[in-house]
Design goal:
Blueprint lengths: L1 E5 L2 E5 L51 E2 L2 E9 L10 E5 L18 E10 L8 E6 L2 E2 L1 E6 L2 E7 L5 E4 L10 E9 L12 E2 L7 E2 L3 E2 L3 E6 L3 E10 L4 E9 L6 E8 L2 E9 L3 E5 L14 E9 L2 E10 L4 E5 L5 E5 L2 E2 L2 E6 L13 H13 L4 E4 L6 H10 L2 E5 L8 E2 L4 E2 L2 H18 L5 E5 L10 H11 L4 E2 L13 E6 L14 E8 L1 E2 L16 E2 L3 H21 L3 E5 L23 H13 L4
Parallel strand pairs: 13-14, 27-28, 27-38, 28-29, 29-32, 32-33, 34-35, 35-38, 36-37
Antiparallel strand pairs: 1-2, 3-16, 4-5, 4-6, 6-12, 7-11, 7-16, 8-15, 9-10, 9-12, 17-18, 18-21, 19-20, 19-22, 22-23, 24-25, 25-26, 30-31
Length: 608
């Protein structure tokens, strides 16, 4: 551990070190559970510091404490109050249904999952505020500190924060943190992606509770609360809006953009106002050159800095425009580009929703790049911030799905509708997804609906997303049940591709899902039965030949105007065996050099 000073107070920095927690009597004997399938990273997960990396790379402070590690847990009926005795220990941030949690038990909609742990505040000074951050908890979390309820949050995919300063007891070194979580899985109205109580086919094991990093941060009384970034490459302007916490009217913001420690732009302004930094001859972010500028933001009060965070940004533009042949295509940085990549489910045999390590999280993206893809569609799941950080650094374009939810839909003469409660939950979580991830240059497309899953008020929802974030494209929707709105007309065809792609007057035409070619490999299967793909083969040679034939049939469609294609999928998932890799990531089923050559030939059809 090292002592770190930040403006106004001292604090212990534990980035990359052990999490801080009390000594549990059976820590030494704790082990992961025995799951159906492990990964090479399973054995690297230990109870002292799982996912010890800083969880918020676009707004960094050095002073923080990681609360991941062993917590007490209990599963009790919904009507029961906080338990006095717990069932054992769970490794946070892994869901209890996963092997890496050490529990591997289903919770279900009729029960509540309880967590308890203590943490030490003796290292904190009395100055400033203490924030408790949750990366994500599925679905509804109620939080107590030292017996006092400090808040509740509903939403399985977005980060949330509580100011716990007034609930910390300075008379004792150990503060008691208790969290209760209820998740109705597939029986209620909340967005849930592919989680179900009875997994089979394309539906997977449910995930309950804490599944991303929990951490503490001490900030000054007046501090930076959030950053909102935009880029305008035509005007060479990087836009930044800084919101504050406990900030007086006269407080100023100072923003400095730099490259390799050399300042390239600076701007000062008022909190909540838009600051425009002129970036002369900007180096543009792209898959070929994922260049990122460094950013330092300071909050200044009465002439002195009171808070500081570091960040980064990329200068890039995404649009639908007409190419030289009069065809609508996707344009990146004012040039036409074919987007080609896999459907990425983001599931793990040992951690389910949570990758075993940050190295594992990065590995899928590295393989995607090595196979010659330039994009990835994140399918009905939202990842931790570090996943998008890796996409930013590697240069992978991201199409981000909103996790599907309530499918108890009523049909009207003109559209499908949800109940008012269901619609309210969907809109709240959709907005939170955009707010949480909008600063990442890698994200270029929002996908509010996948096919007809939970689709409702389609045109209105797509318009709202476009109005809320006009800097990105809106897929409307991905797959069937298109209603003519959005920036993209999206086809799904298995194994595909279709013989003809329709021509749209003002939208780009894409193949949002196709392929799904399966190859079950003994020793790498989640189940010994019910394994399937849209087409299933017996050998690698047969799989390769079929993939190459798919891409040959894709070529004339790209030449005529198909703007993107999404192959199903990055990895096998539970019973699905149509991955580019096995579920345990031990076997990459395709040769990287061969696939890259195939993909490069397709890119060349669109390149200016």
């Amino acid at each position: 551990m090292k002592s770190t000073w930040i403006i106004g107070f001292s604090f212990i920095c534990l980035a990359g070190c052990q999490s801080v927690q009390e000594e549990f009597p059976d820590v030494e004997s704790w082990t992961t559970a025995e799951g159906p399938l492990a990964t090479r990273w399973t054995s690297q997960v230990t109870p002292d510091a799982p996912h010890s990396e800083y969880p918020r790379p676009q707004m960094v402070r050095d002073a923080w404490i990681n609360l991941n590690g062993l917590w007490e847990y209990a599963i009790r009926p919904l009507e029961d109050s906080q338990p006095h005795n717990f069932d054992g220990h769970i490794l946070v941030p892994f869901a209890p249904e996963s092997a890496l949690s050490g529990v591997m038990r289903s919770v279900g909609e009729d029960a509540q999952l309880w967590y308890r742990r203590t943490f030490n505040t003796s290292e904190m000074s009395g100055a400033g505020r203490v924030l408790l951050h949750f990366g994500a908890v599925d679905w509804r979390a109620t939080v107590w500190l030292n017996g006092k309820q400090i808040g509740q949050h509903a939403g399985g995919y977005d980060a949330f924060t509580f100011d716990i300063s007034d609930s910390i007891d300075p008379a004792v070194p150990l503060q008691e943190l208790v969290v209760a979580v209820w998740d109705p899985v597939d029986t209620s109205i909340q967005p849930r992606g592919k989680q179900v109580n009875e997994p089979e086919g394309i539906w997977y094991t449910s995930v309950t509770g804490i599944w991303q990093t929990v951490w503490l941060e001490q900030v000054p009384e007046s501090s930076i609360a959030s950053l909102e970034m935009t880029s305008d490459i035509d005007a060479n302007i990087f836009g930044l809006r800084v919101t504050g916490r406990g900030v007086a009217d006269h407080y100023q913001v100072e923003a400095i953009a730099s490259v390799g420690g050399v300042q390239v732009a600076e701007q000062r302004g008022v909190v909540d106002d838009l600051l425009e930094l002129v970036i002369d001859a900007p180096r543009l972010w792209s898959p070929e050159d994922p260049f990122l500028y460094d950013l330092t933001v300071r909050l200044v009060g009465d002439g002195d800095p009171v808070d500081e965070v570091t960040s980064y940004f990329g200068m890039r533009k995404i649009a639908v425009a007409t190419d030289a042949g009069g065809v609508n295509r996707l344009f990146l940085n004012n040039e036409p580009v074919l987007m080609l990549g896999p459907l990425d489910q983001g599931w793990w045999p040992d951690g389910l929703y949570t990758a075993p390590t940050d190295e594992a999280l990065l590995y899928d993206l590295q393989i995607t790049k090595q196979l010659g893809f330039n994009m990835v569609r994140k399918h009905v799941k939202v990842e931790p911030e570090r996943w998008y950080y890796h996409c930013d650094r590697l240069g992978l374009l991201v199409w981000q799905d909103m996790p599907n939810g309530d499918q108890h839909i009523e049909r009207t003469a003109s559209d499908l509708v949800r109940s008012s409660d269901s619609a309210s939950v969907y809109h709240k979580e959709l907005k939170a997804m955009i707010d949480t991830h909008a600063n990442h240059p890698s994200i270029v497309v929002w996908v509010p609906f996948n096919e007809g899953w939970g689709q409702f008020d389609t045109d209105a929802v797509l318009s709202l997303v476009k109005e809320y974030d006009p800097t990105r494209l809106v897929d409307g929707p991905s797959g069937w049940a298109d209603r003519g709105s959005g920036d993209i007309y999206d086809l799904h065809d298995y194994p595909g591709p279709p013989l003809l792609a329709p021509v749209e007057l003002d939208r780009a035409v894409v193949l949002g899902e196709f392929g799904g070619l399966g190859l079950p490999l003994e020793g790498h299967l989640w189940w010994n039965k019910r394994n399937w793909g849209y087409r299933t083969y017996g050998t690698t040679d047969e799989l390769h030949a079929s993939y190459e034939e798919l891409m040959k049939r894709l070529s004339p469609l790209v030449a005529k105007g198909l703007a993107a294609a999404v192959y199903t999928q990055t990895t096998d998932v539970e019973g699905e065996v149509n991955g580019l890799m096995t579920y345990d990531r031990e076997v990459v089923k395709f040769d990287a050099e061969s696939l890259t050559a195939i993909h490069q030939a397709l890119y060349a059809l669109v390149a200016p």
